[in-house]
Design goal:
The structure is a single chain. This protein is α+β, with helices and mostly antiparallel strands and 354 residues long. The protein folds into 2 domains: 9-251, no CATH class; 259-352, no CATH class. The chain contains 13 helices and 14 strands. A 5-stranded mixed β-sheet has the order 6-7-8-9-10. Strand 2 and strand 3 (21-22) form a beta hairpin.
Length: 354
């Protein structure tokens, strides 16, 4: 993978049984992907002081691209909703979308691809659904597609031809919420899922073709405000991404001008900034300009004979200094090991002997 990262939990399959009998088909077993589960808190991942969202997204995309793993991101609110049997914002509203649900119930898609996912109330229940269906098949994708397709106030409004869908996904055209294709009889058109409304953090365009439930999606991330992310929107995007990560084109806001690197930087140096949150760019630039060695992939690990103990964004073993531990527990572990935790704005080269 392109990034070093350690999940909070790691789920792997030891064996699979079907109808009480073990599955021994090697090809089937190899299709089962491990799941790296992350439990993120708003304070340490999306607040004004700790804007880690972009780095988190890049790392989780790299895991999904590895081919043998996938990810699932949970927040503390997700766990509370699960504990209280409560619904989150992307839980299907059967009242609002009643007409579309009834329309799909009259199609062949319903008996074939209806699943427990439709009734899942929150992200933890969706993870349990994923665990109950570990074998990678096209049928799982179609079940996810049906879930998103149900989020339309009126079936096929808006809807788009194949050509129009490409421009929608490319983010090169605005969406008319009342747009409808002229020819609907064969179902050869794409519908826009209304699973989530407008967001200041991202523009999510999720399209499903009525005829065969072909699923395509693009998530365009917007500029991250200096004040931090809206907590609800930050949680919404992870809930959507959990389901779409294998079927989605995630596009990042172009923030090249934010860190103002010196003209002497190489292209490789420029790419390093993508691995660090914006608040750390000044530190990264200082280290690069002075040829200070550090992990360019945005992680510093503290390990002992038992394995990983803690993680921070930047660290220096020789002087026992770290910048931005990932959590209070990581901070405590570093401090117990004799490290000094330094804020990005307080760092200077004298601290590392230069």
């Amino acid at each position: 993978m392109r990034y070093q990262t350690v999940s909070d939990f790691y789920i792997s399959c030891s064996d699979i049984q079907q109808n009480g009998f073990p599955i021994e088909d090697t090809e089937v077993l190899e299709s089962v992907k491990d799941i790296a589960v992350y439990l993120d808190g708003y304070t340490y991942h999306a607040s004004k002081e700790n804007q880690r969202f972009l780095t988190d997204m890049q790392r989780r995309m790299a895991i999904a691209e590895s081919g043998d793993k996938t990810t699932w991101t949970l927040t503390w609110d997700d766990l509370e909703l699960f504990d209280q049997w409560q619904k989150d914002i992307i839980s299907l509203d059967h009242g609002r979308f009643r007409n579309t649900i009834q329309a799909f119930q009259r199609t062949l898609h319903w008996p074939t691809y209806k699943s427990e996912l439709i009734e899942a109330r929150n992200s933890m229940e969706r993870l349990l659904w994923q665990l109950a269906h570990p074998i990678e098949t096209d049928k799982n994708k179609l079940k996810i597609a049906l879930f998103f397709a149900l989020f339309q106030d009126t079936l096929a409004r808006p809807s788009f031809t194949n050509e129009e869908a490409e421009t929608i996904l490319a983010m090169t055209s605005l969406i008319d919420p009342d747009h409808e294709v002229a020819e609907k009889a064969k179902g050869d058109f794409y519908m826009l899922s209304e699973v989530i409304g407008e967001s200041s953090l991202y523009d999510a365009r999720i399209l499903i073709k009525l005829r065969n439930l072909d699923l395509k999606s693009t998530i365009q991330l917007k500029e991250i405000p200096a004040t931090g992310l809206d907590k609800d929107e930050w949680q919404h995007i992870w809930r959507i991404y959990n389901l779409l990560q294998k079927y989605c084109d995630v596009r990042f806001y172009n923030a090249d001008a934010e860190h103002d690197p010196s003209e002497s930087h190489t292209r490789e140096d420029e790419e390093v900034f993508n691995y660090f949150d914006p608040e750390l760019h000044s530190v990264v630039a200082l280290l690069i300009q002075n040829n200070v060695p550090f992990n360019h992939e945005g992680s510093y690990f503290l390990e002992n004979e038992k394995g990983l103990v803690a993680e921070a964004a930047i660290g220096f073993s020789n002087v026992r200094i770290v910048i931005r531990p990932l959590s209070d527990l990581d901070r405590e572990a570093f401090e117990n090991a004799g490290y000094t935790v330094v804020e990005p704005g307080d760092f200077n080269l004298k601290m590392i002997g230069l």
